[in-house]
Design a protein that fits this description.
single chain, alpha+beta, Fructose-1,6-Bisphosphatase, Chain A, domain 1, D-Maltodextrin-Binding Protein, domain 2, 2 domains, about 30% helix, globular, binds 2,5-anhydro-1,6-di-O-phosphono-D-glucitol, binds manganese (II) ion, hydrolase, FBPase_C_dom, FBPtase, Fructose-1,6-bisphosphatase class 1
């Protein structure tokens, strides 16, 4: 049977779920097209002169990679003129990007991590793009928006998704009625529906964490990982496997595909920071996807989607994936 394209899928979603406004469908198609362009640039590697770092640092204090900046520009240029957005925000931009007055403004806000897993760019390991869609305030046509307009809890997201630039180029998406996966047909240049209603198994034997931070973890995290490592003779009574790709999109894609628990918890290296990952354009979109797939996502104790943001680039601890494991970590934090 002929597989559906992203366009056909979105039109059918719009027909079935009146909650999917035409503007959101247009927005997702524009972002998906931009991800195709980013994936094309990524695929060129050294041949396209896109590897390596720039002299610049971003607001996160990270040295920017050429692809961080190129991906950000591709997403800005693709989304500025369409009339579906009131403003944008990105890991790579200190403050929000308003729609220039020469273009019409829309009713949505787009937030993105244009290139996730930057430390993997130069070593040819999977990287990706993460995006989140929020509603703009009703009066957004009458005034200049501010950062404050973006500070909505993740539960307010209208849509969320990511692209993975790996052996396949994948797009994983939710508009609030389940999680769907698309594979890029590189000959035709179209996103083809290949995974319907992705579900995360409630249990797992696979954890993902950067073990080099072990001595800096809080006791409940240390206890949880120690018990995973104790295997069949330990309190968990089963052996665990470990994976850590250091691209959130690739680690979360594995969790969505075969289960697992992904953790980037608070650690004592920078005690004032709640974690490394950013709430608005990493943790929130991934948490919406994980919950839509039957998993759970917390900061160790609180549901991530309930967190009221206070700053555009604020960080948060992340524990997400197979529901029973995430709940065990929460229990250890509360004991
Ligand atoms: P980004 O490349 O967008 O800055 O994000 C990198 C993040 C995330 O993708 C990954 O899970 C984590 O950093 C890896 O951190 P470590 O290198 O400390 O393991
Ligand atoms: Mn990232
Ligand atoms: Mn990034
Ligand atoms: Mn970065």
């Amino acid at each position: 049977m002929k597989r559906k394209t992203l366009t056909q899928f979105l039109i059918e979603q719009q027909r079935e779920h009146a909650a999917l406004p035409a503007e959101v469908r247009l927005l997702i198609e524009v972002v998906a097209r931009a991800c195709k362009a980013i994936g094309h640039a990524v695929g060129k590697g050294a041949l396209g002169g896109v590897l390596g770092s720039l002299e610049s640092e971003n607001v996160q204090g990270e040295v920017q990679k050429k692809l961080d900046v190129l991906s950000n520009e591709i997403l800005i240029e693709a989304n500025e003129w369409g009339g579906h957005l009131a403003a944008m925000a990105s890991e790579e931009m200190e403050t929000i990007h308003r729609i220039p007055n020469r273009y019409p403004k829309g009713e949505y806000l787009l937030l993105f991590d244009p290139l996730d897993g930057s430390s993997n760019i130069d070593v040819n390991v999977s990287i990706g793009t993460i995006f989140s869609v929020l509603r703009a305030p009703r009066d957004s046509a009458e005034r200049d928006l501010t950062e404050q307009d973006f500070l909505q809890p993740g539960s307010q997201q209208v849509a969320a998704g990511y692209a993975v630039y790996g052996p396949q180029t994948s797009l994983v998406l939710t508009v609030g009625s389940g999680v769907f996966g698309f594979t890029l047909d590189r000959e035709m240049g179209s996103w083809v529906l290949t995974h319907e209603h992705i579900r995360i198994p409630e249990d797992t034997r696979e954890f993902a964490i950067n073990m080099s931070n072990m001595r800096h973890w809080a006791p409940p995290v240390r206890r949880y990982i120690d018990e995973c490592l104790a295997g069949t003779t330990g309190p968990r009574g089963k052996d665990f496997n470990m994976r850590w790709i250091a691209s959130m999109v690739a680690d979360v894609h594995r969790v969505l595909t075969r289960g697992g628990i992904f953790m980037y918890p608070w650690d004592a290296r920078e005690p004032s920071k709640p974690g490394k990952l950013r709430l608005m354009y990493e943790a929130n979109p991934m948490s919406m996807l994980v919950e839509q797939a039957g998993g759970a996502a917390t900061d160790g104790t609180r549901r991530i989607l309930d967190i009221q943001p206070t700053a555009l680039h604020q960080r948060v601890g992340v524990v997400l994936g197979s529901r029973n494991e995430v709940e065990l970590v929460t229990r250890y934090h509360r004991e």
